[in-house]
Amino acid sequence: MKSNKNINPKNDSLKDTMKDKLDVSIESSSSSSDVVSASDAAGDEAHGAVQRAYDLSIEPEGPVEDNSFAEAVKDKLEKCKETEKLLKAKDEIVARIDEVSDLVKAATKLEEEEIPDIKARYEYSWAGRRMYRLCAAWTKFVVKHRWLYEVLIYTWGAIMSVIGLVAAGIMRVFGRAKAKRFAGGWTFYQEVGECWGGVSLGGNFFKDKNCTGEETCEHEFGHTFQNALLGPLAIVLAFVPSFVRYWYQTWADKKGKPLKDYDAVWFEGAASDCGRWAAETIKRDRAWKEIMKKAKKIERMENRVWRKEKALLKRGGASTGADADGSETR
C-alpha cells in the first residue's frame, strides 16, 4: 500500500477524492467472491503458461516475469516455426520430385516410340531424289541449330516470310484468327475457314478449322524448312508448284478423275516427312530440357533447406551449450 502522509485533511478536494475512493472500495468489497474467483482463474492461467513452458523443455529460473525466460520461450517458438517451414519445404520438394518422375516416364515413353526416319523413297526422277535428300539432310542439321533456322527464315527466306507475316496480321485484324504456337514456338499458325487444307507462307502457315490432327501442321511446318533452305528459290521450286498442284488435285477430285498420292512429288513428300520428324524430335528435346530445368530447381531448393537445417542445428547446439554453462554456474 502506498503512504498517504502528504494528504492534507483540511483540503476539501482531497477529502472528496478519498471519499470517492472509499465508496469504490466498499462497492468492490461487496463482490469479493467474484474477485476471488477471477483471481483463481488468473492463477490457473498462469500455472498453465508455466506448464507449457516446461513442456517446451525450458525450466524457468526465478520469477515468471524474468526477461531471460521470456526470451527463451520466444526463441523456442521461433525454432518451431522455422522447423515447420522446413517441413513444408521438404514436402514441396517431394511433390516436385514426383512431378519430375512423371515427366521422365513420359519422356522415356516418347523415346521408345520410333520416329519415322526421313528416307529417300522417291525414285520418280533423279532431280526429285536429290532435292528430297537435300531437304532431309538440311532438316536434321538445322533442328540442332534453331538460331540458324530463325536467321535464314527472315533473311534468305524473307520474301515469303514477310508475305506470311502481313497475311497473319490481316487475318488477325479482320478474321479474328488468333496465332497458335507449334513445335515449341518454332513457328505459329492460324485457323481460317473450313475444309480446304493448309498453306505455308514463309515462317508461318494457315490451316482450316476442321484439321484436328497434327498431320497438316507437320506438313506445313516442313515447308518452312524448305523456305529457310532455298530462300527465294523455294517460290519457284516448291511453293508455286505446290499451289498449282493443289488446285489441280481439287479440280480432278470434283471431276472424278483418279488422283495420285499427294506426297508423290519431292517437295510435298519432303515437307510431310521432314516436318513430322522435326516436330517429334523437337518435342522430345523439349521434354528432356524441361526435366533438367525442374531437376536443377529441386537441387537449389534442397541446398536452401540443407543450409537452413544446418543453421537451425547450430543455433540449437549453441543454446544447449549456454544452458549447460548456466547449470554449472548454479
Give a structural overview.
- With 330 residues, the chain is mainly alpha-helical.
- It has a domain at 106-293.
- Helices cover 70% and strands 5% of the residues.
- The protein has nine helices and four strands; from the N terminus they run ααααααββββααα.
- The protein has helices spanning 12-30, 32-55, 67-112, 126-142, 146-153, 158-173, 215-230, 233-254, 266-329; strands at 180-182, 187-191, 198-201, 204-207.
- It has a four-stranded mixed beta sheet.
- The longest helix is centred in the last third of the chain and has 64 residues, at 266-329.
- Mean pLDDT is 76; it is low at 1-40, 57-65 and 326-330.
